[in-house]
Amino acid sequence: MATLPSSHCCRIYSSSSSLSYSSSLHRSLQRVAVSPSPKRFVVSAKVSQSVLQQNGVSMQDVAPAVKPVENETAFKKLKDGLLSATAGSVEESKDSSGFSFEETGSTVSITVVGASGDLAKKKIFPALFALYYEGCLPKHFTIFGYARSKMTDAELRTMVSKTLTCRIDQRENCGEKMDQFLERCFYHSGQYDSQDHFAQLDKKLKEHEGGRIPNRLFYLSIPPNIFIDAVRCASLSASSGNGWTRVIVEKPFGRDSESSAALTKALKQYLEEDQIFRIDHYLGKELVENLSVLRFSNLIFEPLWSRQYIRNVQLIFSEDFGTEGRGGYFDNYGIIRDIMQNHLLQILALFAMETPVSLDAEDIRNEKVKVLRSMRPLQLENVVTGQYKSHVRGGVTYPAYTDDKTVPKGSLTPTFAAAALFIDNARWDGVPFLMKAGKALHNKRAEIRVQFRHVPGNLYNRNIGTDLDRATNELVIRVQPDEAIFLKINNKVPGLGMRLDRSNLNLHYAARYSTEIPDAYERLLLDAIEGERRLFIRSDELDAAWSLFTPLLKEIEEKKIIPEYYPYGSRGPVGAHYLAARYKVRWGDVGVEQ
Ligand code: NDP
Ligand code: BG6
Questions:
Q1: pTM of the model
Q2: Of the listed 140, 188, 208, 343, which one is catalytic?
Q3: Pathway, per UniProt (predicted)?
Q4: What is the C-alpha separation between 313 and 450, in angstroms, rounded?
Q5: Last residue of a domain, one of 202, 234, 250
């Protein structure tokens, strides 16, 4: 099978996807014509020849001649960024790190708010480096870490350098690239609720922007209780004067419908909806991104994608470790909020949506919302919760959830849950969508399993035996680890007899593709820089997701439902099997052949 030609960060989502890296003049013009920049800006169609010839850094494509709309209200102005525009005639200049600027163009400043934290170190800086390494970042960019901890630029670089890795297939110049990347990383120490401190950051950002049109991305990698302070200060004191300003917001987006709505309302005091990028990193995972391709570009799948042929769909998430280090956060949320209400539900929506009108962000998100709004809110009788308890294996004692010092004694917070969900629409009526998510289980895995119906009047029933369920086709999309798509089929065992077995038609990514799969954060950061919103959660999607789970969560908490205890490292509570059995389903990940 031939690989379709593509470049690693040349991503054209649709004919009107306005901000994609592209090599064609035609596409550049299209991008300019359909600008995704916040609606307050008027983008002139005048694009310098040099930009068009540049083969595609998107911000440069859209921002060469940007004129702020005339003053509307003080509030609007505030949202648009209060600082005076510094762009205009840009001369050949050097920023303070010594990078020389071209005569025209724009620049992107990425500020990681909460840079001293776990997520920043583990995911955000490594993802930014990977993008730089792959040549996916714009030519002119600067990265700032912002947090309260006192740190020099050099100390930030040392901290960041410890977690950077190179793509496995291109190691030769890794050290050199790391040095170049680190030279573009700076640090500013400040409080999250201080406009003055953000104004100091703004000053530094301007020095690096060197008079170019400044585009600014803020990544809120901080605990949710300080989101609003940080957004307020960044918006009032450090948003871009005449480029775009975008804010990536990490989950959790509230803990129920009310708190989520309050968060959205507060964010919208300072930002337009199209400036808010709510991240669900599962949407950035390669095989989740591939779901639509699989479905909509293969004739053999789409006709089968309904209640007519599908018996049930399973969305499974498991981790083979507990809440180590994050017990304080986790106890306030639990596995249903941490994994099901967002990661698994997002996958479900993508899986079950109708064909969107186009691949444009709004068309896809419209279809996802429709799925969520067609679903029945979860009922307590369709949910099983569990919590891991201590277990000794091979002389090693594995802790119980409540052994974590940051978890209150006697906590009833579920670390495991299984649920049956239903979509009441014509396509999916009566098909159980089963979710299972847990920590401290026997393996680490995320997968989608689609179990098809029995073959009516199967001529080979005699050869199959009594367990017909075992003989139905199953499509498995393994999101991680060891990404793969396989289809379980019945096949004749070679030989003179007529013995059937179940075999896999197997697309194993490591065997098929030599390129390393990018981390989800790379894709999402790149999308945010490009202004591509397809993989980010819109506020109405979020509302719909919370309305499915909020009544259930309230009931679990009010009734103080006791979770079923399961040993650390086991397969989880047996109740999950009874739940599945009620809908005549067997979990696909249990058994010898998986
Ligand atoms: P941390 O707890 O590590 O916090 C990040 C930084 O915020 C800290 O380094 C600290 O910086 C500052 N901070 C922490 N607590 C407070 C506080 N009470 N008041 C003010 N500042 C505080 O968070 P993570 O990096 O783990 O996560 C960041 C965000 O991402 C959170 O919203 C989290 O829910 C989300 N997330 C995290 C994941 C992970 O794997 N870590 C996965 C998915 C989402 P300083 O003291 O220097 O100011
Ligand atoms: C986060 C959850 O969103 O996703 C964590 O808060 C979980 O509890 C993590 O461990 C799993 O992400 P991944 O990409 O490692 O599967």
A1: 0.84
A2: 343
A3: Carbohydrate degradation; pentose phosphate pathway; D-ribulose 5-phosphate from D-glucose 6-phosphate (oxidative stage): step 1/3
A4: 5
A5: 250
